[in-house]
Amino acid sequence: METKGILVLSLLLALATTLECAHKSPGIKTTKAKTATVLSIDGGGIRGIIPGTILAFLESKLQELDGPTARIADYFDVISGTSTGGLVTAMLTVPDKDNRPLFAATDINKFYFENGPRIFPQDNVSAKGPKYDGKYLRSIIRESLGNIAMNQTLTEVIIPTFDIKLLQPTMFSTSDGEVSTSKNALLADVCIATFSNPTFLPAHYFETKFEDGKTRSFNLIDGGVVAVNPTQVAITHLFNEIVKGNFEYADIKPMDTTKILVLSLGTGTAKFEEKYNASMASKWSSIDWINPIIDSYSASSADMPDIEVTSLFQSLGAEKNYLRIQENNLVADTTSGDLATTENMKTLENIGNRLLEKSVARVNSDTGAYEPVEKGGTNSDALIRFAKLLSDERKIRKAD
């Protein structure tokens, strides 16, 4: 409980600082609502098939309630994704010529199955530099997303990247794109950047313009350097937008988690195997530390946001408003982020389907293990409940 208290306090203090310095951004339309809604999608390369499967299920349930044209973007105020999750976010929110979502949720896994083997070609691995040249990834993302800019997404989007030249996180959001031309990058460029895991794919360079015409340059790599799990990024962004007046809710205040619904989708983690211990680590050279450091960072970057958000919602009595769906028992080939063989992709899709029937689980902040929630039902039960809440909220907004 002491750990939970510290984590919640740190988040509260960070948000309090945000509230003190926030100002209303000009020129952004307000959104009236009674419940704020957030969707977050982890990074994980080809394992994006797992959340793709979950999203297809959720959209099918929304369509049962609201008709066949219902799309995920119609129901969420903020969608955030890192790396492969950034690509999923873009696909869900990029508009077609009629200003409706260009892709359905069922198109996500189709994209991976059709393009994954060419994004991560197993027979064309580079011996020097990044494992893959990234040429096909850049081509297919530009072809899929076209010339849509950040300020044109169908709902508020926030995508983390990391600027390797400045050594600092760089976030791209719809609202930033609306108020600053230098942050109004092409959605395709942002997706390529957040997908660019530096061991797999080249860093991505592009330029934008400031209002005075001067050039702004970006030297970006994978958003997973910032947050493999961007749930906390998304929630903080939502609170920022509320304070600035960009979301006008009937009776929601910042930090009021009882009136915020958050769905966080993971891409799976390896089975807990106790790979390392203090005795082993005490003997490692600097070279020996490379893989353990990567493993440790990846695990903490995915787990810490979940622990903090879980603690926040529990402390404020709103634990049912936060749903994290994550498979924490991946083994063998399924742990890979780039093994895009037909067999492995089908296995990942099967894992997503089986995950729907698993019990709702919540992370234990002391052990890091996911534990079934008593009387929580299955993940599919929870998603059906979320679909009803999302549908009801949309009807309220339409009535207003």
UniProtKB/TrEMBL annotation:
Gene Ontology MF terms in the entry: monoacylglycerol lipase activity; phospholipase activity
UniProt cross-references to SUPFAM superfamilies, sorted A to Z: FabD/lysophospholipase-like
InterPro entries: Acyl_Trfase/lysoPLipase, PNPLA_dom
Keywords: Hydrolase, Lipid degradation, Lipid metabolism, Plant defense
One Gene Ontology biological process: defense response
Assigned EC number: 3.1.1.-
Top-level EC class as recorded in UniProt: hydrolase
Record remark: domains: The nitrogen atoms of the two glycine residues in the GGXR motif define the oxyanion hole, and stabilize the oxyanion that forms during the nucleophilic attack by the catalytic serine during substrate cleavage.
Function: Lipolytic acyl hydrolase (LAH).
Annotated family: Belongs to the patatin family.
Protein name: Patatin
